[in-house]
Amino acid sequence: MSDKNNSAAKRSGGLGRGLSSLLEGNKYTGKIDSTTLNALNTIADIAIDQIQTNPFQPRTHFDQAALEELADSIRIQGIIQPITVRQLDQNTYQLISGERRYQASKMAGLTVIPAYIRKADDQQMLEMALIENIQRESLNAIEIALSYQRLLTECSLKQEELGDRVGKKRTTVTNYLRLLKLPPAIQIGLRDNVISMGHARALINIDTVENQLEIYKKVVAEELSVRKVEELVRNVQNANKKPDPQQKLSFNKYDQELKTVETKLSSQFGTKIMVKANNDGKGEIKIPFVSVDELNRILDLLNY
């Protein structure tokens, strides 16, 4: 190992000692060797060649230029934040989180890396990897939605629990999950930043895939704003409405404003909101729900 790499390793070890003092009950043990077993809840320097990557890592691509920048920083400053691993056997560890730091440390030529050692089963490994990515990576809306969905299905979490785990309101989680109902072409456009989440949330309110794709193509071709897309969505919704012979429709000046309110409320509540008014200005707002969970979600939005 070069003097530069040795100094980087020493700096990272010193920092490990500093961090361990902030973690109650954690003891800095120094370099792990073959005689150290079951060193749980400790921060220690572990040989990089004893660490396996996380098979549950949801991100498969890391920006090479960003990794090289991080590696340059590590050569100078060492590891600022230890990675997290679990111990598989006497000389083998597996990454739980911190793959970018791990990969950049290898690029920087380090042979040891400070790591926090903890116990975790396969489900916990997946959960921690997903949550770390959601909280720390610059994910697009579809990647976040897919991570939320994996936490629900593969980690057997309920939406209420998921919101607590990722530090988000249940309505925020629901709005992301609804994006996965869009057709693949629109999801790809959102993933690739061709459209924004505001565009996508407006498109969700269209009943048919055909109309969703038609407006999506128009959005891309004409670079339409979110406000313009909401207007197009309202036009589609109005065109698809069947006339109600029992109701006298009002065509006064605030009708269009009511439709705007209806669209915005539908987007905010994540369900189709109906706003009706008669010629006297009297009316009602209907908020439908299909389950107790849906009702509770709506009540949360109303701060009830």
From TrEMBL:
GO molecular function: DNA binding
UniProt keywords, alphabetically: Chromosome partition, DNA-binding
Domain ParB-like N-terminal: from-to ranges: 44-134
Single GO biological process annotation from the record: chromosome segregation
SUPFAM superfamilies given in the database record: KorB DNA-binding domain-like, ParB/Sulfiredoxin
Coiled coil: none
CDD domains linked to this entry: SPO0J_N
Gene3D superfamilies per the UniProt record, alphabetical: 1.10.10.2830, 3.90.1530.30
InterPro entries assigned: Chromosome_partition/occlusion, HTH_ParB/Spo0J, ParB/RepB/Spo0J, ParB/Sulfiredoxin_sf, ParB_dimer_C, ParB_N
GO cellular component, one term: chromosome
Record-stated family: Belongs to the ParB family.
Protein's name in the database: Chromosome partitioning protein ParB
Organism from which the protein derives: Pontibacter arcticus
Taxonomic path: Bacteria, Pseudomonadati, Bacteroidota, Cytophagia, Cytophagales
